[in-house]
Each structure stands twice: as structure tokens, then as C-alpha cells.
Amino acid sequence: MSESNDHNSEILLHKHTRREFRERMQSGELKACIIPVAATEQHLEHLAMEHDWRSVMLIATEVANKLSPHVIVAPSMNIGISEHHMRHPGTLSALPGSWLSVLFDTIRSMHQAGFNHILVLNGHGGNIAPCLGMWGQFQQRLEINLHFESYWNLLPEEVATTNLKTKRFPGHAQEFETAFALAAFPENVRQDAMRDQEDQEPLEATAEAGQIMIDEIINRVSQYVVGMIDGTNLVEIPPFHT
Known about the structure:
- By secondary structure, the protein is α/β, with parallel strands linked by helices.
- It has a single domain, classed as 3-Layer(aba) Sandwich (Rossmann fold).
- The chain has helices at 3-11, 18-27, 51-66, 96-113, 128-142, 157-163, 175-184, 191-196, 207-230, and strands at residues 32-37, 71-73, 117-122, 145-150.
- It has a four-stranded parallel β-sheet with strand order 2-1-3-4, sandwiched between helices.
- Strand 3, helix 5 (128-142) and strand 4 form a beta-alpha-beta unit.
- Helix 3 packs across helix 9, helix 4 (96-113) packs parallel to helix 5 and helix 7 crosses helix 9 (207-230).
- The protein is globular and about 55 Å long.
- The protein starts with a helix and ends in a 12-residue tail after the last helix.
- Belongs to the creatininase superfamily.
């Protein structure tokens, strides 16, 4: 088995056997779980439709590698709430109720496995409002340190604006996401389509800027998860009515 596969076996839940996972949980080695959520949807004419979930998985796995062996990454929810993109064939979308049900069941399963520190790391804007609307109820139901954050929210604005000519982020398939793709998976960027389409903002993107922002996001998300584990980043569970 290659070194990279060994590493994946350590950070990805689905690479474990039941014995391997059980023994790591029983030893106390695993401290936190990241559940990536995103979408499969149109990203203008020039970016592959996997962009959101591929991006959030990259951040999640790099964070888990950085904090190894204490963090595990659950399988990504790579279909999101994308009704606003459904006029573009190929976009996949789940209705909010069914999507939130699967997400809650994933969180509940990880809690039952032994995790009290769970970060749902988001990579798609359409997932935000439904999650924020339900999050307090999720926290009340489970009474654990359960967080929801979009990865770009942890990128300091000054870092983004210094590296983005348009000064706008995250946008949708524009400079920020295109720079991310150019740095992380350039094969997903169709250069001819980027020049031909109506929206020209993606042409401002560079791989160099993308890498700077990716590195900063990984550092910030890592700090966020460390705080969850060491008790300095704990959620306040909404009060119950008496």
C-alpha cells in the first residue's frame, strides 16, 4: 500500500474497517469529525460541476492531515440544495427537508460512534440558510459541540481582498472559485470557455492567488478544529424552554 493510501486510511472514515475504527475510538485517539457538505451543480461554462464538493473535501482532508491522528473525515454529501441552478441541465438538487434529514442522520451516526466534537464544513451557498434555520434544534437534540461553517468564512477578508483583483468572494465560479480550481485541480478549468462566456470575472483568477488563499483557509480551519477539541471553541446550545 502506498504512503498516500496509508494516509487516506487514517483520515477517511470509509477507508477504515470496523475493527480499525473501533480500536481508534476506544483508544481515545480520534477527537473530532468533519462532515463536508457541498453540491454538484453548474459552475458557469468553464468550471466542472464537481467544484463545490471537491473544494470542501480538499480543505477537510488537508485539515485532517494537519491534525493527524485526531481528526477523521466522513463521506462528503456531494448533492446540495441547488434549486436556483436547476435551469442548467446536469445540476443535481435535493429539497431542504430531505437534505437536512440525511445530514442530521449523518451527524447522529457520528455522535453515536463516539464523537462530541463535529464540524459540518460547507462548500455551497445554497446549503447555508436551511442549516442556519435548523442548527439550534440539531444542537438541542444532540447536546454536543456541533458546528456549521462555510470554509470561506474562515478566510480573513484582508487575505482575500489582497489576492483577488475583483475583491469579491466567494461568488459563484468567478475569480475566487476559479483561482481555487487553478491551484488545486487545474484540469477542471476550461480555458476556452472562460474566454468565450459572458461573465469575464474568472479571467482575473490566478493559481498563485488561489494557493495562497487555500493555504490560509487550511490553517484557519485547522485552528478552528483545534479550538473545538481543546475546549476554547465550544457552541452555546440554545436554552430549552422550562
